[in-house]
Amino acid sequence: MKEVITRSSIKRIWMKVERFAVPKFKNGYTVSYSIAEEFKKRYTVDYVVIRNVPNKKAFHQSSINTKNILYQGAVNEARGLEQLVVAMKEIDSTLYIYGNGNLYNKIKRLIKRNQLEQKILLRGMILPETLDEITSQFYIGINLVEANGLNQTYSLANKFFDYIQAGVPQFGIAYQTTTNKKEFLERKEEVRIIYDEEKFCEAVFIRSHTLLFEDDIKEIDLQEEKINNQFVLFKSEMRDAIGFDVFAAVFYLLSRYEEYYDLPKDKFDNYEYKNSVLHNHKTLDIPVVEQWLELFKKYLSKQNSLLQFKQHKASYILSFDIDVAYAYQNRSLKRVVGGFIKKLFKLQFKEFAGQLLTVLHFKKDMYDTFDYIQSTIKNKQAIFFFNMGKFSAFDKNPSYKNKKFRNQIQLIYKKNIVGLHPSYQCNSNKKLIATEKKRLEEIIKEPIKISRQHYLKLKFPETYQSLIQNKINKDFTIGYHDTFGFRAGTCKPFLFFNLEKNAITNLRLYPFAIMEGTLNDVLKLSINEAKKIILDLILITEKYQGIFIPLWHNSTLSDAEHWKGWHTVFENMLDVIDERNIENYLETKWKNIYTSFL
């Protein structure tokens, strides 16, 4: 056990007891064939195996309505509980822990530090007969063991059989990390990875860069580096597994390390893509993180043909930012009159007439494309991000009190997911996020847990810290407004790592690949050129089994002014998704998104 092998003096005592006692018993028995074989190899004795199996019990099979996770048993070291707590950041479910032990208080503190009190519930010790009634109510049981010694490697916990008898599937795996070279050298039969500056035995070797061992943030001079024409970061000077530090490279991009640098910003005070290492190496349109991981997996598979990696299906998430819900309707009298005067002053008589007809309800508001969107996406669930801020130069939605606007949000919510689009003003007044979030929650009568920043305003780490404080746990801001591609080098969601605090968080970031305004307003592309770029992004996301996330606005689907004909770009995108049979992530992964967030 870890409690023994990590205490050298205690370990020596027990080893002496074992060497003295085990050969002495003529009728010795043990609980597993693996231990019996180990005794025979060490002491040339034959031990009988008597399984430590609990009596068969009659469990009442309960109907399972929620996908809750169960851990029952000792809350001690080497049960993988520390890793399990951190892993729960990745899982939209609730973990119940029944039991007690010497690690209980540490696990309790770890849960609090990771802000997981709502996702991991410590239930303590209960009577066996009570536990029997509870076990069958869970979707899956956890049975983790760290391979820190033969006792763990050959263990067969009672909960293994309890889960089986209760008809509950269980997840279990043996694993180990170590800094003990002697111990590492002894595990020759297993896949071993050396992450160090020097290789000291035959194993998969990744020469480590200093990045993951540092606590401070400093600007790193990244030279143009390639291996077999493949762009990489932190190339190794000496020969190792794949020629570069894949762990440091992935961390550098996903942590957005370069966005912590003190560099010039654009007119909206945003990080400029031209400063990014991916732009400088012309790889923004490629999910290089996935490329690197594929290289690493192929190398590992060559070292051990039994290794298998889980395959994922590509998926998509349709997302819409509702910055300006209506061009003319549902506005205050002051805004309506101001609009008329402005158009007359500029001699915009055609626009004046259009506004007049719209206000008088003789003509449909050109930005009211919600029926078109819903009929076009058909049964495809989407996310709509609503701006709940007060009117300003950058925030132009109707008042959150406007009845028709509220009805529209509620109508959309019936078939889709609703998220917050924090107003431009939130960037200078962080307290506004809580206010705007509360407004939207009051409209849909559900807690808001997802967001995307208006104008994609993003400053590391302040923006995300503010979202976390307001209990937002999924954000869709990662992407650029003036170019397309993969800002963090990935087409898959990942957790925000706060470099200033040197800590991982529970906030999951969903990177979008393309915004329609980038193609039309910024790059001035033709409709056919836009279709081609979107197709290419879909294909490369599909290749790496990622999530294709486009960003659209209701106003750009108006078919008005310079957006005339752009609805065909939108429809062509949907056709490609259907033709390639790409699945809707919201319907396969987020079937019950609101209750899973509670």
From TrEMBL:
Superkingdom classification of source: Eukaryota
Q: Which residues form the DUF7033 domain?
A: 243-330
Which Pfam family, any one, appears in the UniProt record? Answer: DUF7033
| Protein name per its UniProtKB record | DUF7033 domain-containing protein
Provenance organism: Adineta steineri
